[in-house]
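Can't attach files on this board, so I'm pasting raw text. These are the components:
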Amino acid sequence: MRPHVRYGNPVIKVGVFGAQGRMGSEVVKAVEAAEDTELVAGVGAADERDRVLGADVVVDFTHPDVVMDNLRWLISHGIHAVVGTSGFDEARVAQVRELLAEAPGVNVLIAPNFGVAAVLMMSFAEKAAPYFDSVEIIELHHPNKADAPSGTAYRTAELVAAARERAGSAPMPDATTSELDGARGAEVGGVRVHALRITGMIAHQEVVLGTHGETLTIRHDSMNRESFMPGVLLGVRRVADLPQQVTVGLEPLLGLS
Ligand SMILES: NC(=O)C1=CN([C@@H]2O[C@H](COP(=O)(O)OP(=O)(O)OC[C@H]3O[C@@H](n4cnc5c(N)ncnc54)[C@H](OP(=O)(O)O)[C@@H]3O)[C@@H](O)[C@H]2O)C=CC1
Ligand SMILES: O=C(O)C1=N[C@H](C(=O)O)C[C@H](O)C1
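---
Top answer:
Structure tokens for the assembled complex are below.
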């Protein structure tokens, strides 16, 4: 599709799924404010999806239960997707890859977190993990969050687990033999993840690493939802040109992988 031009520059036509939500409403404002993007439509329900026909890219901030159906629809209509919605484990990413095999030229970017500092926090945790005996993740979010653990915590645990495996790390020490259900959190790839839901908070995470006589805590805080918008707009600008049909994480767009 040929982009149209404003003041000599190509303009990217953008649709937003979840447009009335906490994140989607920020995306609508960011797309309307940027010089090189134009809002085609904001959509709040599956039966309104036709309103984004003609968009180059759709940004999805909806719900883990509906995002796969949205992606199926977007891919079948040849529209690139920038996905912020959480809930993507390896099985889901594989399903997206399968859908895209039928749609050459369509790309999907799935970013567990669009905050640049959050991406750095994940990257630092991955780098540090092999140097420590123990790594656990604590995520803290607003109480209206639909899922637990957060997509960011899930992804961090995946990255930490993979880094430990590559390094041949021994299993983490844990002598617990008696526990109340849930007291040790959930396990993702062998990494413990603990989820807190606290009024007044937005999105926060600590990765706690420890070895003999030393601990390291890597903490990230999102103070507002505007902070995600530079990452979202970067995704919108770059998704069509990504070298792979499915990209997970903003890292390659930031030169981190
Ligand atoms: N990657 C990142 O950086 C970030 C990711 N997120 C993730 O984004 C997702 C949304 O979060 P948040 O904005 O707080 O949630 P909200 O509940 O505030 O917003 C979701 C919106 O999506 C709407 N919706 C539901 N189904 C559809 C559909 N089929 N098509 C279009 N819209 C639909 C909902 O409408 P209704 O209420 O009527 O159902 C609601 O308005 C979550 O998975 C969250 O974890 C959040 C922040 C940052
Ligand atoms: O629901 C949220 O708020 C957030 N969701 C994402 C996640 O699940 O990791 C990103 C960020 O933590 C905010």
